[in-house]
Write a structure and sequence with these properties.
Elements (H helix, E strand, L loop, with lengths): L1 H45 L34 E6 L5 E5 L2 E5 L4 E5 L8 E6 L5 E5 L2 E5 L5 E6 L9
Length: about 160
């Protein structure tokens, strides 16, 4: 009886092994089919469909592809926008690394650091009198609604409008 069971067990193991090999072969064939489909799709995607050139962007330096605003092609001063504010006239203030870019719905105004704003800005606020307040790394500056400098308080030099 023991001897009769051995060939039967061997036969069962042999059948299971063959089934496993067949399943593995089927999985390998399906994988190869998917790889072939992917290669075909990839070759179609890389074929140019127009006269336009492909533009490759290095994602480590996105600002390297920024078109500067002084060329007229891009109204933003920088790729990086650190903060934003919307005043009561619905103007949008975007704090970038070089300036505050202000959009009034039709055109852009730029308050550049070191020029219209003496220092790098941290934030923008509007008071009840519609004055625009810009805090910087070295004080706070008050601007009128037409973005003209009205007053300022440089840190450590007293307060011109604290009373």
């Amino acid at each position: 009886m023991f001897i009769a069971k051995r060939p039967l067990a061997f036969l069962i193991i042999l059948c299971l092994s063959a089934t496993g090999l067949l399943a593995q072969k089927t999985a390998e064939d399906k994988l190869q089919d998917k790889l072939d489909s992917y290669k075909e799709l990839q070759s179609q995607l890389l074929k140019p469909t127009s006269n336009a050139q492909n533009i490759l962007i290095n994602h480590d330096q996105p600002d390297a592809h920024l078109t500067a605003r002084n060329t007229g092609d891009n109204p933003l001063s920088s790729f990086y926008i650190y903060d934003s504010y919307i005043d009561r006239q619905d103007r949008v203030y975007l704090l970038t690394e070089y300036s505050i870019d202000v959009y009034d719905g039709t055109e852009w105004t730029h308050l550049d650091f070191g020029e219209e704003i003496p220092y790098e800005a941290n934030s923008v606020y509007q008071d009840q009198s519609d004055n625009i307040w810009i805090s910087t790394i070295n004080g706070i500056f008050k601007y009128s609604t037409d973005l003209q400098l009205q007053d300022y308080n440089k840190s450590g030099f007293g307060c011109a409008f604290c009373q």
